[in-house]
TrEMBL record:
This is DNA-directed RNA polymerase subunit omega. It comes from the Bacteria. Keywords: DNA-directed RNA polymerase, Nucleotidyltransferase, Transcription, Transferase. SMART domains: RNA_pol_Rpb6. NCBIfam families: PRK00392.8-5. The keyword Magnesium does not apply. Belongs to the RNA polymerase subunit omega family.
Length: 64
């Protein structure tokens, strides 16, 4: 699985926001050693980005 560049180009929201969500998800995946990582040849960032872009995981920005 490669990084979802097409989805990034077509994304109309805040790119910084979705990048932060993908980074946080990549960290989570690497910490729990998700079996889906093995299916993705160990590429955590591309897996996390795909999950965020396809809404497999949801994110929200918390107000401080």
């Amino acid at each position: 699985m490669i990084f979802p560049l097409e989805q990034l180009i077509e994304f109309s929201g805040n790119v910084y926001e979705i990048t932060c969500a993908a980074v946080r998800r990549a960290y989570q995946l690497s910490m729990v050693r998700d079996p889906e990582i093995a299916e993705n040849d160990g590429k955590v960032v591309s897996l996390a980005a795909r999950q965020v872009f396809t809404n497999q995981v949801e994110y929200k920005i918390e107000e401080q």
